Amino acid sequence: MKTIIEPFKIKVVEPIRMTTKEQREAIIREAGYNLFMIKADDIIIDLLTDSGTAAMSSEQWAGIMRGDESYAGARSFFRFEAKVQEITGFKTVIPTHQGRAAERILFELLSRPGKYIPSNTHFDTTRANIEYRGGEAIDLVIPEGKDPQNLHPFKGNIDLEKLDNFINKVGPENIPLCMLTVTNNSGGGQPVSMTNIRQTKEVVSRYDIPLFLDACRFAENAYFIKKREPGYADKTCKEIAREMFSYVDGCTMSAKKDALVNIGGFLAMNDVELANQARNVLIVTEGFPTYGGLAGRDLEAIAQGLEEVLHEDYLHYRIRTVEYMGEKLDQIGAPYLKPPGGHAIYLDAKTFTPHIPAHEFPGQAIAYALYVEGGIRSCEIGSIMFGKKDPVTGEHIPPPLELVRLAFPRRVYTQSHFDYVLEVCAAVYKKRDQLRGFRFIEEAPLLRHFTARFAMV
Ligand SMILES: *Cc1c(COP(=O)(O)O)cnc(C)c1O
């Protein structure tokens, strides 16, 4: 088998500022050992997130020039709307400035105290928008989805029996909609099978509950279906995506993921009455319905990105990159969440540094070492981000997993960048016994991971 090359050529380059280990030690100390507080210019390879970090194509940049900035009825809106409808088939498409704006509008209309919104796993912003309006966000992923070593091909699937039981327990009249996150971001970027989407629709239809997709990574999910689900090998990813959307009533979308742009999103649905209400909210807070908080040029770039993201060569290279990183980490022996998902590798910090207890943040110890060793920015997803404090004893209550996410921006880094990341991972793994934990010296009451300062233990 030949090397799977990046299916694009590079036309514009952005230089990376190289730093030495000594410089990085000083930089991260200055930043209170918090990677969020480091300037992007002081990072060599930035794997903090895959959100809004994609490289746009020459056609997308051409679209930026073609953007029609008319306030109402812009040509760019109609191109955007037509492309979203071609892929999703939904009757109405409402542009928003990013994914959480679509969520905010939807849940302003549908979430309130006494209402429950089940999902495989809600993403943080989705959960926050549901809870902000008083409703409850319920996660019902299959048990395999919570086991970091289970090789189930569709670990993002929702547990259909639990869903049915849950609907009967709280009553269908208290469930305004059910959601499926594709791929399941908070569960490690794991896909949902077509069968699971169809059967979820069958369950909720019995109770007249609509089903929405949180469609941020719909194209990556479609590719996994093509590769892993019987009967889909000969279908195109676009056909598979269309089938995924055909079973549901609407979607929220962050275009910062699988629309290959740096900003944007949308809310789309078949319920024309609900869409009219959503447009009224949109006009008050985001903008007129043909731009929704975006510039016309952004809509052009999204339309083009949605076309490109479904190209088989792109998806093959994209998913293969993550798989390749997994294979090489296996050779190094470094533990990670398996199987690799669609957009990131999650190092398993508990196994990586068993000598560091949860209250000394093993993920942070690894993230620190990856930065000092090679200038790589990763993201701790463990006790710092999701840990809680016992209200009585003040003792640390850790989340089930201690992870370090290496998220891969789309079309930004080449194979040699990824090989470099692996070399750095290998060097850090080799000296894992010497890594030390951290403790807080400053900590905000909410979302503390963004601004906290640490000291090394
Ligand atoms: C990123 C993301 C969102 C929120 O989108 P933003 O554009 O960041 O507001 C919602 N759901 C999932 C699954 C995401 O990955």
From TrEMBL:
<protein>
    <submittedName>
        <fullName>Tryptophanase</fullName>
    </submittedName>
</protein>
<keyword id="KW-0456">Lyase</keyword>
<dbReference type="InterPro" id="IPR001597">
    <property type="entry name" value="ArAA_b-elim_lyase/Thr_aldolase"/>
</dbReference>
<keyword id="KW-0663">Pyridoxal phosphate</keyword>
<dbReference type="InterPro" id="IPR018176">
    <property type="entry name" value="Tryptophanase_CS"/>
</dbReference>
<dbReference type="InterPro" id="IPR011166">
    <property type="entry name" value="Beta-eliminating_lyase"/>
</dbReference>
<dbReference type="InterPro" id="IPR015424">
    <property type="entry name" value="PyrdxlP-dep_Trfase"/>
</dbReference>
<comment type="similarity">
    <text>Belongs to the beta-eliminating lyase family.</text>
</comment>
<dbReference type="Pfam" id="PF01212">
    <property type="entry name" value="Beta_elim_lyase"/>
</dbReference>
<feature type="domain" description="Aromatic amino acid beta-eliminating lyase/threonine aldolase">
    <location>
        <begin position="46"/>
        <end position="421"/>
    </location>
</feature>
<dbReference type="InterPro" id="IPR015422">
    <property type="entry name" value="PyrdxlP-dep_Trfase_small"/>
</dbReference>
<dbReference type="InterPro" id="IPR015421">
    <property type="entry name" value="PyrdxlP-dep_Trfase_major"/>
</dbReference>
